[in-house]
Amino acid sequence: MQLQTKRFGQITIDPELIFTFPDGLPGFPVEHRFALLRIGLDDTPFIWMQSIGNPDLCFLLVDPQAAFNHYAVAISDTEAEQIQCAQGVEVQVLCIVSVPNGDLHQATVNLKAPLWFNTESRLALQSIIDNDAYSIRHPLFAKGGE
Questions:
Q1: What's the DSSP call for residue 76?
Q2: Where are the domains positioned within the chain?
Q3: Which of 2, 49, 107, 114 would give a disulfide with 140, using CB separation of 3.0 to 4.6 Å?
Q4: What's the CA gap between 22 and 19, in Å, rounded?
Q5: What does DSSP assign to residue 23?
Q6: Residues near 20 by beta carbon (within 8 Å), at least 6 away in sequence
Q7: What is the fold of 2-139?
Q8: pLDDT of the chain along its 146 residues, tens only?
Q9: b/e string for 111-143 if b means 16 or more Cβ within 10 A?
Q10: For residue 2, what are the CA distances in angstroms to 60, 66, 117?
Q11: Would you say the pTM of this structure is higher than 0.85?
């Protein structure tokens, strides 16, 4: 599938990497279909999530377990049902990264609202975690850019 995007130009998308958010995303209720893209190095914990319907809408995501050893969340039974996740089905968890003014050293991760991707049904959702240990602006890097 060919897709025109603002960030990457014309790209080819594998249909197997397209996920549907039945309820959209908070703040983007009409955007339902997104493709997960690995651009660049294969071993990076970062993945782009490009809207299929809006060429301007693209999010940088990170695997929170790769970036933060302490991050541990579980999908609720209700949320698992929403994305048709039977017991034993692989669910990929990713979090949205914000990079203020393009300064990667100031990047933050929304650990409070992870994205859940059912790799079998190709359904996904964003949930809000009821845990004050996680914030919507957790620094991606330690102070000093380390």
A1: -
A2: 2-139
A3: 107
A4: 9
A5: T
A6: 32, 33, 122, 123, 124
A7: BH3618-like (2.30.290)
A8: 999 999 999 999 999 999 999 999 999 999 999 999 988 766 788 999 999 999 999 999 999 988 888 899 989 989 999 999 887 777 999 999 999 998 988 999 999 999 999 999 999 999 999 999 899 999 998 764 44
A9: bbebbbbbbeebbbbbbebeeeebeeebebeee
A10: 20, 30, 22
A11: yes
Contact 103, 86 (CB under 8 A): no
Parallel, antiparallel, or unpaired for β 91-98 and 108-109? antiparallel
